[in-house]
Amino acid sequence: MMFKALVLNKEPQFSAQVSQFDEASLLTTDIQAEIEYSTLNFKDGLAITNKGPVVRLWPMIAGIDGAGKVLQSSHPDWKPGNLFVHNGWGVGETHLGCLAQRAHLKGDWLVKLPSNFTTRQAMGIGTAGYTAMLCVMALEKAGLKPAHGEVVVTGATGGVGSIAIAILARLGFSVVAVTGKLSEESYLKSLGASRVIDRLEFSSPGKPLQKERWAGAVDTAGSSTLANLCAQMQYGGSVAACGLAQGADLSLTVMPFILRGVHLLGVDSVMAPLSKRQEAWQRLSSDLDQQLLEKMIQEITLEQAPEYADLLMQGKITGRIVVKI
Ligand SMILES: NC(=O)c1ccc[n+]([C@@H]2O[C@H](COP(=O)([O-])OP(=O)(O)OC[C@H]3O[C@@H](n4cnc5c(N)ncnc54)[C@H](OP(=O)(O)O)[C@@H]3O)[C@@H](O)[C@H]2O)c1
Description:
This protein is an alpha/beta fold and 325 residues long. It folds into two domains: 2-113 and 292-324, Quinone Oxidoreductase, Chain A, domain 1, CATH 3.90.180; 127-266, NAD(P)-binding Rossmann-like Domain (Rossmann fold, 3-Layer(aba) Sandwich). It has helices spanning 42-48, 119-141, 159-170, 185-191, 223-232, 255-260, 274-287, 290-296, 305-313, and strands spanning 2-9, 15-22, 31-40, 60-61, 65-73, 83-87, 102-105, 111-112, 151-153, 175-179, 193-198, 214-219, 233-241, 263-266, 297-301, 320-324. Strands 3, 5, 6, 7, 8, 15 and 16 form a seven-stranded mixed sheet that branches. Strand 10 (175-179), helix 4 and strand 11 (193-198) form a beta-alpha-beta unit. The model has no long low-confidence stretch (mean pLDDT 97). It binds NADP nicotinamide-adenine-dinucleotide phosphate.
């Protein structure tokens, strides 16, 4: 059967185009699925615009995330008709992806769609929101409580940032949003941010130890932003580091760690074990306000995905893009 997909080719030169793909060319796996919705995450943006070395198999179908229905299964946990959410596992990188009407996935990769989410809402969350939840879980595990003080979120208008703000505020934390888009202050406050500050304050190299400001942090930027956050953490504070929107470099001293007992917590979503994903999706279904989620979502078609991937890479998107397949 032929199906529609966003196909990335590198020969004769890079292209990202919606075209017909033959299902017989997909790997044989234990789940054959119909994708109802997908999304554009930062990594999809890098792949679709060819701005980062994401794709390692060509031609590739883009799309690291998908939500939809199982059509055929030889996996004991999955039956035809079951609804699922898929995030990461190298899909859209080394395994053909989910910006497509069909995907062949592995039953061990999939999470059952929480009953209070539609497949569209699940993709409104996507890897960005699931990673935001993993960051919050990491901060909680390190002992962070609302009474400890303010929690700062960088890349605040982006996918991870927007959802992290909404979850943290709902859990009772006082959240400070750091953004390059000060014009989005009312959006960020509507998600639950108590204050909004300019990311320029964090983007240049600073002193190894600075005034103690934050009890916790969710950082999507890396580079000088992450170094400055570490230098500004309160005694015993925790930083969940998940991104590189500013850069993958990190130049800091050990001072925040050895003099203030600061915790730097690395967060990965791509290879996170299934049990952690199930916990994160369960938590999302209880700790994320669905009306706020709706405020973050912009829905586009598969054909619009290349244009929006470009806008995402230019930092021009606020919130989350959902792709109706
Ligand atoms: N570890 C993981 O498993 C994992 C999973 C998901 C995402 N990530 C990473 O997390 C980051 C955010 O992902 P996302 O899906 O939220 O992307 P996104 O929706 O594109 O948001 C990224 C945001 O970063 C901010 N930003 C852009 N350029 C910046 C710069 N030079 N300095 C500081 N901030 C900058 C912008 O927000 P403002 O305009 O509000 O500042 C932008 O909206 C990406 O680096 C992504 O690769 C990692």
